[in-house]
Amino acid sequence: MKYKDYLWIENLIQQNFPLKELSTYRVGGPAEYYIEPADEEQALAALKWADEKKIEVYILGGGSNVLIHDEGLKGLVINTKRLNKILSQGKKAQASKNSNKVIKKETSVAEEVTIFAQCGAQIDRIVDKCAELGYGGFEEFAGLPGTVGGAIFMNARAYGKSIADIIETVRVFKKNANGRWISKTYRRECLSFGYKSSPFQKERTFILEATFKLKPVNSGKIKNLIEEYRQKRKELGQYVLPNAGCVFKNNRNFGKPTGMIIEELGLKGKKIGGAEIFNKHANFIVNTGNATAQDIYNLIRLIENEVERRLGLKLEREIRLLGKWEE
């Protein structure tokens, strides 16, 4: 596709598209422009189209870990939900353009196996498929909302494991020195991940796909662990009310989890409008039914201000603000 052969993508782009139901908070205004690309060609054309119009691009996966402004997003929102292929093939995996199903090719017994997944593949779907295939390594992420692209971008973490711990390769669209979008594959050892952070947060990229290095294990054992992790999330009330998971990162220098710090300050249950600091987990803010994004943001700021004022500690947000916010 030549660099300017992308105008056809306008036929697939929608305007004033509602985003509220695509956010796990169930808040937020519409996207000025919106597209759900069915393949890489459409995704690339959309990126070039946005460049031509000189507008902002937002990549939306599962809609978790983000707070969308009530006025919506000015620019183009690219939803990756249709880029959801998963493939397993022993020590090496390749994408199949003709299948949305998980495929397992017969291979000899290996010490390591590889799962390939596109950016829009749901993490929980990969967890279940790995269990069926007897592949261990993803089980700690059972019940985690979101997609592969978002998990890599945020370096998602659960029960002591980060997604970076099992990444083998990541392929992205990024701009070269001439300002053209190109495809580039990174091996894990070339990527610098940190606690709930990735190098992709520092540059403009579109995460396309990844391969994950796993190990053959007993399928029954894996399924039991998955059920255990999901049960823990249920006990925390993670699925009771709309939320985006933990609002703030933990900090080892604080000596205790952020949720405990917030709770000990007596903030659990505090409400602003329809937003509430969750009574089962103080690092969660939930939408009790009629919250606005502004309500949630105001509660975030209240927590930050109280923790800094009373303890001298500066919290770091895990959640990302999308849209025009006045900080």
Structure, explained:
With 327 residues, this protein is α+β, with helices and mostly antiparallel strands. The chain folds into three domains: 7-79, Uridine Diphospho-n-acetylenolpyruvylglucosamine Reductase, domain 2; 86-230, Uridine Diphospho-n-acetylenolpyruvylglucosamine Reductase, domain 3; 239-322, UDP-N-acetylenolpyruvoylglucosamine reductase, C-terminal domain (Uridine Diphospho-n-acetylenolpyruvylglucosamine Reductase, domain 1, Alpha-Beta Complex), CATH 3.90.78. The protein is built from six helices and 18 strands. The longest helix is centred in the last third of the chain and has 19 residues, at 293-311. The model is unreliable at 91-109 (pLDDT under 50).
Sketch the topology as an H/E string, one letter per element.
EEHEEEEEHEHEEEEEHEHEEEHE
Cα-based radius of gyration, to the nearest Å = 20 Å
Mean pLDDT: 91
How many strands?
A: 18
Which key features would you list for this structure?
six-stranded antiparallel β-sheet, Uridine Diphospho-n-acetylenolpyruvylglucosamine Reductase, domain 2, Uridine Diphospho-n-acetylenolpyruvylglucosamine Reductase, domain 1, 327 residues, globular
